[in-house]
User: Fold this.
Amino acid sequence: MVDALTSLTGTVGKDGAADGISTLNLQRVRGGKVYFVSDLHMGDGSHGDVFGNKDGPFLAFLDEVERHGQALVILGDALDFDQAWYFSRIVRAHPEVISRLTRLTDQMRVIYVYGNHDPDILLFRDILKWQLCDKVVIDGHILAVHGYEFDSYVGEKFEESSVMTKVSHLYERIFRTWVRIPLRDYYTLSNRLVHVLFFWLVQFNKVRQRLGKRFGRPHWGRELKAWTDFWTRGAMGDPMGITLPAIAALESGQGGYDTIICGHSHLPGVVPVDGGAKRYINLGSWSFANSQYGIWDGARFHLQDWITGREVRDEQYVPIFQGLADRTYEEWFHDHYLGYLRFRCGEEGLREGVRPPPWPVAGRPARLPSHTEVIDTEADVPAPTG
Assistant:
C-alpha cells in the first residue's frame, strides 16, 4: 500500500507546478464558502453512465455555488474516462454541465483534484480551464484529496485497477446489468453469480497457499489474497477500505491537519475523530440516485444530498466501527447464502422494496427538486475528436 502519510505531505504552492499535478493552497476569505463535490462519474450518456440524467439538478447546484461560493473543489472522478473511453463522448452527453463548469472559472476558483478515473484529464486542461492538482490544503488545516491514496489496491496498482474497471464497465454495458457492491442494493443475477464465484476463488486460494507452504513457495497466492481481502472489506461495508487508513493518517498528526476530506469510496459521512477534535469527511458521489455535496463556511462543514435535501452525518460508518467490515468473506457467505444463487440480504431487500438501480435513459429530462430552478446554458466547449 502507498504510504498515505508520505503521499499526503509536501510543499504547498500558490498555483501548483507547471505540469498541474501538485499541492494547491486555498485560503478562504472571511465569510466565504467553499463548495465540494466528488465522483460525479459523468460518462457517455449510455445506459452505463451512472451519473445518469442528473444534469438539471447539478446545473441547479452550480447556480447555488455561483451565488454563494468563493470556490468549488472537485475531488476527482468527475469525468469517467474508464466508462466513456473518450472525452468527446462525455462532452456530447453532458454539454451544458461541461460548459457551465468551464465558465464558472471566470467567476471563482474551480480546483480539480486528480482521481483514479482521470488518466487523460491533463490532455484537456486548456479546454476545461480548471486548476489541476493532486491535493488541496484549505485554510491551512484541512486536507482534501481524492482518496485513492488510502486504497490498498488502487494505491499500489493504479494501472491494473484501471484495466479491471474498464472490463467491469464493458461487461455491464454489454449485458445491461450491474456488478457492484453492496449485493443488497445491486441484487442482479450477474452480481449473485459473481459473489458465489468469489467464494470459490477464496477457497481455491487457500488451497494454493497451503500447497505453497508445503512445497517451499510461500509467495503462492499472496497477491490474490491481498486482492480478495480488499474486495471483501468493500463487500462488508467499507468500500475501497479507505476509512481506517484515512483516520490513522489523521490521528498521527503529521501535517497538522484536523480534517481530511475525500471521495473515492462513494460512502458519504462526517466522522468525528479523537473525540471530535478532528474529522474524516467523505463526500459520497453523484452516481445513481446520489447527489451529495459539502460546504465549508469556516465554522462548520455541512454535508448534504442535493436532491433530497437530507443532511448526512456518520450513520453509514457505524457498522464499520462495530466491526462488521472485519468479517471474513466465508463468515458472511455462510450467513447469507440460501442456495440457488439466493442471498438473505438480497431477498430481504426485495421484500422491503429495494431493487437494483434502473438503467439511466439517455436524453430523458431530469426531474428537478422543488427548491431549484432550470438553468438555461449554451454549450460552448468544442468536442475534441477521439
About this structure: Residues 1-6, 9-20, 362-386 have pLDDT under 50 and may be disordered. The chain has two domains: 4-153+237-321, 177-236+324-351. Residues 99 and 379 are 5 Å apart (CA to CA). The radius of gyration is 21 Å.
